[in-house]
Amino acid sequence: MASAAGNYARRMAESSESYWERADLVQTVLDALAAAGLDLDRLDVDQLAVTDQFHGGGKAVTLRLAELAGLADGASLASPPRVLDVGGGLGGPARMLATRFGCTVTALDLTPSYVEVAQVLTGKVGLADRVQHLVGDALDLPFDDGSFDVVWTQNSGMNIADKETLYRGFARVLRRGGTLAFQEPMAGEVTPLHFPIMWADDESSSFLRTPEEMRSLIGGFGFLERAWEIVTETTSLSSTASPPPAHSVQRIIMGEARLAAMTVAGRRNLAERRVATVHGVFTKE
Ligand SMILES: C[S@@+](CC[C@H](N)C(=O)[O-])C[C@H]1O[C@@H](n2cnc3c(N)ncnc32)[C@H](O)[C@@H]1O
Asked: Could you tell me if 117 and 91 are in contact, meaning their C-beta atoms sit under 8 angstroms apart?
């Protein structure tokens, strides 16, 4: 049987890590924030949102998902709720959950440069005692069974073909009665997608299943559905009126030219119903 380290090395070589990875990202992000007129010694999570919420819809949809998940009222959650953010990116959602809802958050991401940026930004906003960022693979979660109250994931499963292993892992690390909350692009009514899209240049690394396939898969791992909302419009980059600013995460990671091509393809995918993004909230039975 392959070791966890072996699995991880294989995944790094084969999968999305090279697609997402960027050199010198800490400096690039800090330079972009400074150029936008922000004081690097007095940052707060709201100022960072354009730069660190790496999903369509940004801060507003993170807060909406948190509301759907019941984080605002804290009902049935331990205090403070222990959250695992899978595919946490630059750490924007993790910091938002810590600041707004008092959560302690462990954010795991496959891309080392993102984790490095996440650690720097978390330090700058004074949240290092509540938010930690680790490099790791969503398909090989390095945590004990039942060790989280909430598993949270936004726009991170699209490169992952093996969704059975992904959701089995979510169920394993959640305690009984815990909450799974996700924002997940899924396959629309019409296929295939137009490329490039934010997570892939072509279909060889994009793995979307339909909402009904996902619902049935998730239910099969002992999750009870609490909320299921189609949020394609509000989470589509291409539906925004103006292009994102220079310090937006999309511009920093993708660059202006690639982002323009992604916006064109995104508009077509949206208009032709080729993608359906879902906010889902489930309880682990
Ligand atoms: C579009 S970004 C979303 C980041 C973050 N969730 C957010 O909303 O700001 C997708 C993230 O998924 C991560 N990712 C992709 N495959 C992964 C895997 N197998 N394990 C952990 N992270 C993964 C990428 O490194 C990237 O940071």
From this structure: yes
The reply to whether ligand 1 has any atom less than 6 angstroms from the CB of 206 is no
Q: How far is the CA of 208 from the centre of ligand 1 (A)?
A: 15
Go through 11-42 and write b for each residue having 16 or more CB atoms within 10 A of its CB, e for each that does not: bbeebbbeebebeebeeebbebbeeeebeeee
Dist. CA 126 → ligand 1 center (Å):
23
Q: Indicate the residue type of 54.
A: F
Tens-place pLDDT, residues 40-95: 999 999 999 999 999 999 999 999 999 999 997 654 556 799 999 999 999 999 99
Decide whether any atom of ligand 1 lies within 6 Å of the 137 Cβ. yes
pTM: 0.94
Could you report the per-residue pLDDT of 225-266, keeping only the tens digit for each? 999 999 999 998 766 667 899 999 999 999 999 999 999 999
Ligand 1 and 110: CB distance under 6 A: yes
Q: From the CB of 236, is ligand 1 less than 6 Å away?
A: no
Closest-CA residue, ligand 1 atom 4, reads 89
Q: Is the dihedral of CA 269, 274, 280, 282 positive or negative?
A: negative
Q: What is the DSSP letter of 3?
A: -
Nearest CA to ligand 1 atom 7: 54
Contact 180, 282 (CB under 8 A): yes
Residue 208's identity, in one-letter code, is L
Instruction: Give the chain's domains with CATH numbers.
Output: 4-284 (3.40.50.150)
Atom nearest to 183 CA in ligand 1: 8
